Amino acid sequence: MIYCANPKAQFLSYKNKIISKIIAVLNSGKYIVGKELCLLEKEFAKYIGTKYAIGVANGTDAIEIALRSLNIGYGDEVITVSHTAVATVAAIELVGAKAVLVDVEKEYFTLDFKLLKKALTKKTKAIIPVHLYGQSANMDEIKKFSKLHNLYIIEDASQAHGASFKNKMLGSIGQIGCFSCYPTKNLGALGDAGLITTNNYKLYSKIKTLRQYGWKVRNKSELPGRNSRLDEIQAAILRIKLKNLDKDNKKRILISSLYSNALSKKYIIPKPRINSKSVFHLYVIRVRDRKKIINFLKSKNIFPDIHYPIPVHMQPAYKKRLRIVGQMTNTKLLSKEILSLPIYPELSIHNVKRIINLLLKYK
Predict the structure, then answer these.
(1) pTM above 0.90, yes or no
(2) For the residues of 3-14, what is the DSSP string, one character each?
(3) Tens digit of pLDDT for each residue in 26-77?
(4) What is the pLDDT of residues 1-31, one digit of tens each?
(5) CATH number of 245-361: 3.40.50.300, 3.90.1150.10, 1.10.2020.10, 1.10.260.40?
(6) How far apart are CA 303 and CA 317, in angstroms?
(7) Is the CA virtual torsion 234, 155, 328, 125 positive or negative?
(8) Which CATH number is 2-243's, of 3.90.1170.50, 3.40.50.2020, 3.40.640.10, 3.30.70.100?
């Protein structure tokens, strides 16, 4: 069977190193906020090109803590997209702020900067562009708008570890970058994990304080913080995978090029943004008879997926409760047509070609 993502296959490819490192951590007796986390934070900051990185429990916490560090909360508004994982909006609501949702660009599936002016109010404090599927949002235009209106940029780079825009790593362009390290991500742990990046020392210091009960020194809460620590075992696993991230991303890019070259005449394939490098966390095509294609592929033991079938503003928990800017035309269209094909570093070229041949044969 060929799955859309296969974190077990990646574990097996690094199995000996991972098991050896887990045993070393267990023998160390230090399991929370220790040497492995400290080293991961330094190595990840260097990789992204920021001064600082902070490990947290997951990607949702990363966005929530980022918002708290900027004093965004009740009465404030944050602009983002509806075509994203629910986590982006959930994090905004967790701090008491209101998510204002805009449509995405039809070609790139990322935030349509032309709608920012319509979304802006006196309550707007920040923009969260989502670098969806491993592709950058238009950061030049978003930065220009945010500077003009004195807004913060928090990059949701949860699907974009190693991607770049104009040779700058995503997660290093806004005031704060947020990453999920869920097992299926380009840089994935073997459990929940997250990372936050910034170049601002004050934000770095505050984020570190917020992630652990508001402590600057143990047992003394300077701020009303929370518990969102990245444990030593997950940090150690991420350090192993970080060393191999560029190599693994090259495999994703190779698979994506095989898909694009073969499928471009029959299907609507991803359009690459000029001056940016996608790392293809997902390879998403658009099809008109999605259900039939899914059933066809499943009959051949190939299991694609949909990211995401229900836009956030149409989810039962959020329907008619969030402020929507415009008609969400592209978001609605994409939710009906998108299909995520299998892509991960361990997927063999033989199986990629098998998927391609089946899609080309499908009538």
Answers:
(1) yes
(2) ES--HHHHHHHT
(3) 999 999 999 999 999 999 999 999 999 999 999 999 999 999 999 999 999 9
(4) 999 999 999 999 999 999 999 999 999 999 9
(5) 3.90.1150.10
(6) 28
(7) positive
(8) 3.40.640.10
